[in-house]
Amino acid sequence: MAVKKIGKQTVRLKNPPSIISTYSIVGPKEGDGPLKEYFDFILQDDLCGQKTWEKCESKILEDAIKMAIKNAQLSEKKVEYVLAGDLLNQIISSSFAVRNLGIPYFGLYGACSTMAESLSLGSMLIDGGYADYLVCATSSHFCTAERQFRFPLELGNQRPPTSQWTVTGAGAAVLSSNGLGPYITHVTTGKVVDAGIKDVNNMGAAMAPAAADTIIQHFKDTGYRIDDYDLIITGDLGIIGKEIAEEFITKAGYDISKIFTDCGIEIFDNERQDTHAGGSGCGCSASVFCGYIYKLLKDKTLNRVLLISTGALHSTTSSQQGESIPGIAHAVTISNTKE
Amino acid sequence: MAVKKIGKQTVRLKNPPSIISTYSIVGPKEGDGPLKEYFDFILQDDLCGQKTWEKCESKILEDAIKMAIKNAQLSEKKVEYVLAGDLLNQIISSSFAVRNLGIPYFGLYGACSTMAESLSLGSMLIDGGYADYLVCATSSHFCTAERQFRFPLELGNQRPPTSQWTVTGAGAAVLSSNGLGPYITHVTTGKVVDAGIKDVNNMGAAMAPAAADTIIQHFKDTGYRIDDYDLIITGDLGIIGKEIAEEFITKAGYDISKIFTDCGIEIFDNERQDTHAGGSGCGCSASVFCGYIYKLLKDKTLNRVLLISTGALHSTTSSQQGESIPGIAHAVTISNTKE
Question: What residue stretch is flagged as signal peptide (chains A, B) (predicted)?
Fold first, then answer.
């Protein structure tokens, strides 16, 4: 019997893993934004000494993983798994990032939902007794994403107001069967939800229905009330997506407005930094969680947070073939108590 | 404590999940090969009524998942997770395949190692008490892979003798906390191993060191002897990669030659079908396992099998930027007893 299952899509961990350390690295633009004090490392430029943007993305992911392990005062040999993924074709940032680590590796793809996907699977692997230490990590890079999904950077193409700005950043979290918290206590795994959006410049709208679906299901499954949480933060719906998701969630009877925000909104100062609908990319919720939220949990400014990373599951090929953009959202409860 | 961990990279499942059903679909070429009697469904052409090869690949993956669930006499509502991935950019085959299912979904990317990756994570989710029923699935398609990774099909480009033929096929397996076997008893998770191979037409050589590494580690971790197994079958090393892997494994003191083969070798009649070094693609080990090996386990022709799916973790971008091709291999023990 699935003894740890509660409700339809949620798991309640019996031995909640502790997030014993994190590390975040962001690019210069993110490092000039409202959260700059919180990030562990800010790049001087978008190549960080590498020859290509892709190699830079892989390097910052590797560095984030290594530094998170170091911050946990662990040797790399003690780490039993790395669970990682990114936006690039065949998730090369992740595969190349772990190539020199010698740690068993599960590659994931959930688009921008990958941070919560890795925390979900990682926390079940710890709770289930399969590992004592593992790393969950992901990255994105503005330049690698732009040229892969949209246009050559050199084209200087105009961006519509609904578009989001892919975050250059990486985040890594070390989960342990021991530790003083914060703990991952619940995992709500998302379904693919396709609302029929075909506009590749409006990811927020494409992902919002999936985010709403997972958040509503989380409350149904757990029986939590809104005020059991200090913060509900989506991965990167941005300004437009957050508004749509909030409308869905409110209609379902959950008024989360007072404690609801989005990593893509928090990471940039839109007025000053001209990021249109806000930040996006796997590295958005990764760096905001690992850099910012984790520290607020550690110093007890926050005590229970619902992190929902959201992904748009399309490719340039699927869009060129006329397909809509399905979304997915995975949620994890991160709490200073094991309850 | 990680009570289910044995040795460095292996997990021994306390409540081994049962594979209660499988389903396999292959293309016309695979359906004309030596295993044709074993596949559950053979396509008449490589579009199966769809407008594009990509849509065809997604459709056969969706059909395989649905039919595996049907064969298990389950309703889709009973299935708690789908774990799936494929070779296409942003794993669109998988995301679109599960879009209409309404089942929580973890997207994976392990290149051609994905079938064993999904069985690895899936079996831990069942064993750990997080689900009673889930589906592990993956697919590939000759035409989608060729045009994404290599050349336009229409070019009719020459293929060197070391090249492999991407299998058009999909496989899905339903895992359950209950059932009469075969059971997944052990999971050995691979590390990324990079031997420096840069030839994108010699994937076998790129993946062989990773396969050898995982197989050797499996025997070290478990203490199994070679004759504890009836069959050791790699995912898709093909003729060249298998030879290299076998040499590594023999040098490490394990003579597996009598029971060692490869899905990429078994699926085609190379003499007649002109497939050069053999089959490859996520769908290769998926269709060979779900179509062939599973049936031999069910009728007790085989009683304990080590399935090792192998992946080459590169992209066209990484190769164009001069990177080598790292490999990975994940192994699962599938046995008619729970030991």
Answer: none
